[in-house]
Design brief:
- There is one protein chain.
- The protein is α/β, with parallel strands linked by helices and 407 residues long.
- It folds into 3 domains: 161 residues, 3-Layer(bba) Sandwich (FAD/NAD(P)-binding domain), CATH 3.50.50; 123 residues, FAD/NAD(P)-binding domain; 82 residues, FAD/NAD-linked reductase, C-terminal dimerisation domain (Enolase-like, domain 1).
- The strands form 7 sheets. It has a 5-stranded parallel β-sheet with strand order 3-2-1-7-19.
- Helix 1 links the parallel strand 1 and strand 2.
- The mean pLDDT is 94.
- Bound molecules: flavin-adenine dinucleotide.
Length: 407
């Protein structure tokens, strides 16, 4: 039976910013349709990018929540907490839950985000933390109260967020990276050295080019980290930021095409009719890059939610945003936007560094087009850079460097 908007059944897996924004969008367009939002977490929508300031005790627990349960009730969005989608049957159009319940759908959204990769070799040791969820933040915060020495492992944004949080709460903090510098696929040597200087100014010990040989425990708790060059670092807690894995494994056998994430077109439609994907769980067709890309940014997930919600009710809106990741870097800021070599290794780049003001820029090009960049420190000219990515104005090679100091 083909249902019209009034009695259509929408099922959304994942109640992060992508899934919840889509639910809101659908509800606005179709006041009487059934909208079910499923999450395996115990919370209604909270702000994942507020977790670092929460950990630094700059904001309260209440400020982390975006929508409470009542918000969903007022909009007749059925929120199923602590419920895991185990399997999707795209033939019968059903989602199978861990409870045994089966949810039929007419339109399905996969907005399941990613999970933090664990640190190999930690076994059952307590006090080794990933940083992905509100529960992680609460557990880390409690352990900080009992700790003096912290070690952070990884060269990603999350490892940096942990480093800043540990240090700002007074722990002796060592930051260990396997690569030669922070964000090794986005920055290069000079940018990496600038981040080191900023972190060291704040009392962080930064160590590069080391693997982890052993994470030693005593009475089930971590006590030391041994690096590949046999240095030993005392640790009352270890923070791990070694990337995420997209939550798409439960789609195996469904016929929905996945690689790193769910493959979609620019309308966020998967290869299977009536199945869509958004946010971190989508590997979408990016018009600016001219190929598929995955993003892990709040803006991207929010805007995906808006676009996919409109398309699920019958719209035809192409995703047309330049995603931006912006966060503090101790007393400074770092901002990455558009495509970077992290997702597109073949990009060419130009860079500029001003030691005196601790300002750094690296811009990424494909042929004659600007596709993205990274900025540390002052952000003057940033809106113009975004505009140049969107308009795809051709930029001659000889003109590239001028963009580095745009005002
Ligand atoms: C600590 C931290 C700091 C960050 N800081 C920044 C920042 O400063 N700037 C920025 O741009 N981005 C930042 N990010 C990234 C940003 O938060 C994410 O890109 C964004 O939240 C992704 O939203 P999403 O809705 O796609 O997925 P998520 O927020 O990951 O939501 C997906 C939800 O689906 C649930 N789920 C997964 N599988 C299932 C299943 N099978 N059944 C039911 N539920 C399931 C998950 O548990 C989760 O609740 C940060 C991320 C973290 C963790």
């Amino acid at each position: 039976m083909v249902r019209n908007g009034a009695d259509r059944r929408y099922v959304i897996i994942g109640n992060g910013i992508a899934g919840t924004t889509a639910a809101e969008q659908i509800r606005k367009a179709e006041p009487h349709a059934s909208v079910i939002l499923i999450t395996n977490e115990p919370y209604s929508l909270y702000n994942r990018i507020a977790l670092p300031p929460f950990l630094k005790q700059k904001i309260s627990r209440q400020k982390v929540t975006i929508h409470n349960i009542a918000w969903h009730e007022e909009r007749s969005i059925e929120l199923m907490l602590e419920t895991t989608a185990m399997r999707v049957d795209t033939q019968s159009k059903e989602v199978h839950l861990h409870t045994g319940r089966v949810l039929p759908y007419d339109r399905l959204l996969i907005a399941t985000g990613g999970r933090a990769n664990p640190m190999p070799g930690c076994g059952e040791l307590k006090n080794v933390f990933n940083f992905q969820t509100l529960d992680d933040a609460l557990a880390i915060s409690a352990q900080i109260e009992r700790s003096q020495n912290a070690v952070v492992i990884g060269g990603s944004y999350i490892s940096y967020e942990l480093t800043e949080a540990f240090r700002s709460r007074g722990l002796n903090t060592t930051w260990l990276m396997r690569g030669p510098y922070f964000l090794r696929r986005v920055l290069e040597e000079e940018g990496g050295a600038l981040v080191d200087r900023i972190a060291e100014k704040h009392g962080v010990q930064v160590v590069h080019g080391v693997g982890i040989k052993e994470i030693r425990g005593r009475n089930g708790e971590v006590c030391e980290v041994v690096t590949s060059d046999d240095r030993v670092f005392p640790a009352d807690m270890v923070g791990v930021g070694v990337g995420i894995t997209r939550n798409v494994d439960f789609l195996a056998g469904s016929g929905i095409e996945t690689s790193q994430a769910v493959k979609t077109d620019e309308f966020l439609r998967s290869n299977v009719p009536d199945v869509y994907a958004a946010g971190d769980a989508a590997e979408y067709y990016d018009r600016y890059v001219g190929g598929h890309t995955v993003m892990g940014t709040w803006d991207n997930a929010t805007n995906h939610g808006k676009v996919v919600g409109q398309n699920m009710v019958g719209g035809s809106v192409a995703y047309d945003e330049v995603p931006t990741y912006s966060t503090t870097l101790f007393h400074s800021r770092i901002m990455a936007f558009g495509a970077t070599p992290e997702s597109n290794p073949e990009l060419e780049s130009v860079l500029w560094l001003d030691e005196a003001t601790e300002s750094y820029r690296r811009l990424f090009f494909h042929g004659e087009h600007l596709l993205g960049g990274v900025i540390i420190g002052q952000r003057k000219g940033f809106p113009r850079l975004i505009e140049l990515i969107q308009t795809r104005d051709p930029i001659a090679r000889s003109e590239r460097e001028k963009l580095l100091t745009l005002q």
